[in-house]
Amino acid sequence: MKRILILTAAAAVVFASCGKGTASLKTQEDSVAYAIGLTWGKSLRSIDSTLNVNVFSSAVKSVMDNKEPAFSEEECNNIVMGYFTITKPAKNKEASEKFLAEVEKNNKNVKKTESGLLYEIIEPGNDVKAVDPADIVKVKYVGTRKNGTQFDASQEGDTVQFALNSVIPGWAEGIKLIGKGGKIKLWIPSDLAYGQQGYPQVIDPNEAIVFDVELYDVVPVDSVANPANPNYKAPVQEK
User: 170: number of CA atoms within 13 Å, CB side?
Assistant: First the structure.
């Protein structure tokens, strides 16, 4: 009973907040419908913001009105599967290639490697650079999608460390271009990032991504502080 009361109280807050300042949401049923619509809308936008909302709404209405659907359940599954495994990845690839081409065209400081990685060295740093794939780098970074939405970042004020062989190829390639104390901006093509699989719920298939990275330190593979070194000495924890 206690759990039911808690859920009921929470629902009341939701209904109240949904209706606040919206004169047309006068009933609990309207508030529920609006809340569900918001949830579906956010989900639809995250899946693909180019989908036709009016067609989506008409399909929902036909179900609510118990009308004969235009497609069978099997046809629906095939349509959705084909779109997200073939059509959308192709659209993403085209959009990402256009995005990278515009970056290269519009920024005279951007350079391109043989692999297709675009980069701009903000600060070169010193002569201490990561070279071996097992080298460890200590960095601060921010990762964004091509639309500017941040999807990853080191915690504010803290550095994080990675072995170069544990990160995406474009990031590893880019960090080798600067030395300790350096800063670099990377525009990474999808084939040097998360590829055709993408990163579910975060990065779309065939999507180019952007990183701003500051390199604080490099721990070479031949350092006893590097776990890849056969002579690695783990730090002793104080009791």
Answer: 26
